[in-house]
Design brief:
alpha/beta, 2-enoyl-CoA Hydratase, Chain A, domain 1, six-stranded mixed β-sheet, four-stranded mixed β-sheet
Length: 262
């Protein structure tokens, strides 16, 4: 029996989504893009999921769009067709109110790079590598790479990557600010799960609201973002009691003491 191309495991309100075409380096076939989009749309509305971890099976995160399928060699979805563009796994990810931690276990290339950039936080294995080969393939990005990458690593570095198609290894990606942490392969998922657990330990509802505020502020001019933060903060604080603040303060102090002795 063939395994599904997207696997989901939810434990303690943390959902781990695995792109599961290891023999094809998790290339984004129409089936994988469809099931991936459906998965994130379903998780978006799941009250039992607080954090999502996205990774790939085998030695790749995802090698990008399935070029054999797009070239008509395997399947019938043509590059640039409305069908290909409508299978929007990235749009489904961006619609998720839960934070998405990208556990980049291997190569993330072109469309796969765009999927990685749709995550809120990237953590990489030492085996991870990134590349934007749009210019080499002769297609334009359509999932936000040309917008997000320069904002993360700077315009000049983004142009170097995108206009050469060269690979960026995990260590350099960390130095450039693309990924937050680089770990040995066997430590990648446990580290991401610990980060997810830390997010879950925050005040109920705060992580989703704070993520939304950060994303909204990032998408608008600086002055408007500052005003938006003031408005959201004031509205939120009207629902916070002194007793709640005192209780959470004690929890923060206890956690600080626990981390200091660990």
């Amino acid at each position: 029996m063939t395994e599904p191309v997207v696997l989901v495991e939810t434990v303690d309100r943390i959902a781990t989504v695995t792109l599961n075409r290891p023999a094809k380096m998790n290339a984004l076939s129409s089936e994988l893009r469809t099931l991936g989009a459906e998965t994130f749309h379903r998780l978006k509305d799941d009250p039992g999921v607080d954090v999502i971890i996205l990774t790939g099976a085998g030695r790749a995160f995802t090698a990008g769009l399935d070029l054999k399928e797009l070239g008509g060699e395997e399947g019938s979805v043509a590059a640039g067709s409305s069908t290909a563009l409508d299978l929007d796994i990235v749009g489904a990810m961006l619609a998720c109110p839960q934070p998405i931690i990208g556990a980049i276990n291997g190569v993330a290339v072109t469309g796969g790079f765009e999927v990685a950039l749709a995550c809120d936080i990237l953590v990489a294995s030492t085996e991870a590598r990134f590349a934007d080969t749009h210019a080499r393939v002769g297609v334009m990005p359509g999932w936000g790479l040309s917008i997000r990458l320069p904002r993360l690593i700077g315009v000049s570095r983004a142009k170097e990557l995108s206009l050469t198609g060269n690979y960026l290894d995990a260590e350099q990606a960390e130095r450039w600010g693309l990924v937050n942490h680089v770990l040995p392969p066997d430590e990648l998922l446990p580290f991401c799960r610990k980060m997810a657990e830390d997010m879950r330990s925050c005040a109920p509802g705060m992580v989703r609201s704070y993520k939304r505020m950060i994303d909204e502020g990032y998408a608008i001019p600086f002055g408007e973002a500052l005003q938006r933060e003031i408005e959201v903060s004031r509205a939120h604080m009207r629902g916070v009691t002194p007793e709640q603040v005192a209780e959470r303060r004690r929890g923060i102090q206890d956690r600080g003491r626990s981390q200091a002795t660990s």
